Amino acid sequence: MLGKRDPRIHVDLAHLRGLKGRARAISFRPHQPSHSILNGQHASKIKGRGLNFEELRHYAIGDDVRTIDWKVTARTGAPYVRVYTEERDRPVMLVVDQRMSMYFGSALNMKSVTAAEAAALAAFRVRDKGDRVGGIIFDDHGWQEVRPQSSARSLNRFLDRLAEANCSLNANAPLVDSTPLSKPLSAAARIVKSGALVIVFSDFDGWDEETEKSLRTIAQHNELILFSVLDPTSEQLPPHLDIVVSDGTLQAQVNIGDETVRRKLADFSTGRLASLLRFSAKYAVPVVPLTTAQETLPQLLRLLGGQVAGGGAKR
Questions:
Q1: 94 with 117: CB under 8 angstroms?
Q2: Which residues, at least 6 apart from 231, have a Cβ–Cβ distance to it below 8 Å?
Q3: In whole angstroms, what is the distance from residue 268 CA to residue 261 CA?
Q4: How far apart are CA 49 and CA 286, in angstroms?
Q5: What does the pLDDT look like over 191-217, one tens digit per residue?
């Protein structure tokens, strides 16, 4: 009999499905709470759903004067307002990184686990609001596409493939050339075209000019949010520590206490983040930081607005 998986290292389908009831307080919409990371300078870029015109009716006390149709009012001699209903069924693409660079964690979770949980919570919230959910899950061998649909079957297919990719991560896996970050992003741009919300969950390892080009293409005609999954070691390396790192075939001991080694590792990590933040500032694309050192749901609620019900996510 197989032992129970440690949800800090791998998350199976049952674990992801178990997050369903905990996603309702999360919001990706434009009117964010004042403490939300999407509020302020980026709020105008997160447009949320559009509005569909439904009917004209007589103005009533309390109606927003901005909804008055002045042409009809002038023609009829009586004030009329335009009534809109919230657009439903918007396509949402969740792009989730499950490459070996994500199979690392020095505190609570692997980066791959934090990304998978955040994507699953987003998927449930999207489906609950009536939008179409789909996604791209990519690993070192390629990617799998789930076209945005409004059916529960599509959501289950996305979660199933996400869990499969996460559980396939293995420190003993043979060394292969990693999937370039730009490739699944280009695939996402090809699928959504325009008018969609695209959310990327990644450590953005392998950021290059092609990555930026792909993200720019998406942001040109869609809403885009980038969730940067970080581990505490990317912010502060322990001063006196020898670690053993492995690519699945070879292993080596790294002396973190060596100043040259520490500087090179820090430059590598901060350089990737700097590229991401430059892109964010240039194109007004929100970057939401997630850390592996904390539970995923409380972070999302704190960053996007909401409260943790019942003390937070349970494992």
A1: no
A2: 104, 105, 106, 107, 111, 291, 292, 293
A3: 11
A4: 17
A5: 998 888 999 999 999 999 999 999 999
- Residue 110 near residue 87 (C-beta atoms within 8 A): no
Which structure tokens are listed for 69? 């149709």
Helices (H), the chain: 13-17, 70-76, 111-128, 152-168, 182-192, 209-221, 259-283, 296-304
Beta bridge partners of 228: 202, 289
Question: Per residue in 154-185, pLDDT tens?
Answer: 999 999 999 999 999 988 777 778 899 999 99
> Do 295 and 11 contact (CB within 8 A), yes or no?
no
* Torsion angles phi and psi, residue 7, rounded to 5: -65, -5
In the numeric block, which tokens belong to residue 11? 């998350």
Q: What angle do CA 103, 109, 113 make, to 5 degrees?
A: 60
Q: What is the CA radius of gyration of the chain?
A: 22
- Helices 111-128 and 152-168 cross at an angle (nearest 10°) of 180
C-alpha 16/C-alpha 95 separation (Å) is 16
Q: Give the integer Cα–Cα distance in Å for 258 and 217.
A: 42
Bridge partners, 246 (sequence order): 251
- Residue 29: both structure tokens together: 């919409």
3-class DSSP state for residue 118?
helix
Evaluate if pTM is beyond 0.85. no
- Report the DSSP pairing between strands 242-246 and 51-58: unpaired
Give the amino acid at 261: V
Distances 214 to 37, 177, 209, 224 between C-alpha atoms, Å: 24, 20, 9, 12
